[in-house]
Design brief:
By secondary structure, this protein is an alpha/beta fold. The protein has 17 helices and 11 strands. Helix content is 54%, strand content 11%.
């Protein structure tokens, strides 16, 4: 019987040994069911070729050529990637819409003796369930935002809090971006892949307990925070972390050393700020960078850009800051102490 999920949890808690995505590598790279492995029965070029034949020659010729390619590739997967599985293995297979690619592969696996099944509707069903959760329905969680000026090590606090049993969502980690002008950490996932990862995290959370999320704008780099989560974040109370400017400077010198040391990339990131902070200030930052004075540059970026932006944002949003936690410093030992205080505040919310 095909797996016919009506909720996202039905698909993520499937109970099968392995989830196999048989779509092309390009389809898989854009997004896939969390934890799935990619065993394409048509690679990118083959899929394009079959599609062209379908449109320009005939559907019959396309199916004939496609079938030969699908079973040839499937045989290779069986001889290599799947050869170690015993007779009790239970794979769940899906393709784009639960059609011929997944059906053919699952049938072949079943003929061998493995207990394979397919996802009814394929990836399209999965994506529809993700959209329902993150775009169409209110999330059943009590969110709390962890706020504070740039450089208060909020992201670094999240794993420390998770280790104390706090439910956290690391949006910057999921988006592979530090959430600020200089926050690029390399290539970001696609919007769909980000939403898949986020949905997977949400499905593991307990709605009866508060969920801590770092205060962000609605856009993290090129990634948009989905509407259902953003709606929950906008009304969430805040815990605000404070720290002295010098401590924040030292922290950002460590955290942003990659871009502070890459002058061409840094200067390219600073250039758009001329429209907001003026050419003279951006020119001053560029001179400090060229002189190698990372500390003075970092301090000025906070005082003359980040702190001003944070104050303006706080005035516009006027969040409900129901607790403040002051950090004397931002060394590992300081952060452990801050995490303990934040965890205590959240624990009190559960009583």
């Amino acid at each position: 019987m095909p797996l016919t999920p009506s909720r996202l949890n039905d698909l993520l808690d499937h109970g099968f040994d392995t989830v196999i995505d048989v779509r092309s590598p390009a389809e898989f790279a854009e997004d896939h069911v969390p934890g799935a492995i990619n065993l394409p029965v048509l690679d990118n070029e083959e899929r394009a070729r079959v599609g062209t034949i379908y449109k320009q020659v005939s559907p019959f010729d396309a199916r004939k050529i496609g079938a030969a390619l699908v079973f040839r590739n499937a045989a290779n997967h069986i001889e290599t990637s799947l050869s170690h599985h015993d007779g009790g293995w239970r794979p769940l297979v899906y393709c784009w819409r639960g059609g011929q690619r997944s059906g053919s592969f699952a049938w072949l696996l079943k003929e061998i003796g493995w207990r394979s099944d397919v996802v009814q509707g394929g990836y399209k069903t999965y994506r529809r369930l993700v959209v329902e959760m993150l775009h169409d329905q209110a999330l059943p969680f009590r969110f709390v935002q962890l706020g504070g000026y740039t450089g208060t090590a909020k992201t670094e606090l999240l794993p420390l809090l998770a280790a104390r049993g706090v439910q956290v969502i690391d949006l910057e980690g999921l988006a592979n971006h530090r959430g600020s002008l200089l926050g690029s950490m390399g290539e970001q996932p696609s919007q769909k892949a980000f939403e898949s990862a986020l949905a997977g995290v949400l499905c593991r959370l307990d709605p009866g307990r508060p969920v801590l999320v770092e205060a962000e704008s609605s856009k993290i780099g090129q990634i948009l925070v989905p509407p259902s989560l953003w709606d929950g974040m906008k009304v969430a109370p805040w815990i605000e972390v404070t720290a002295p400017l010098e401590a924040r400077t030292e922290y950002l010198l460590r955290a942003y050393d990659d871009i502070l040391s890459d002058r061409p990339r840094l200067h390219a990131r600073l250039a758009p700020l001329k429209a907001h902070r003026g050419e003279a200030l951006v020119a001053q930052w560029t001179r400090l960078s060229a002189a190698g004075d990372k500390r003075a540059l970092t301090r000025s970026l906070m005082e003359d850009h980040y702190d001003l932006a944070y104050a303006k944002s706080m005035k516009a949003m006027a969040p409900n800051v129901f607790a403040q936690v002051a950090a004397d410093g931002l060394t590992p030992s300081h952060l452990e102490h801050v995490a303990a205080q934040v965890a205590a505040v959240l624990q009190a919310m559960e009583i």
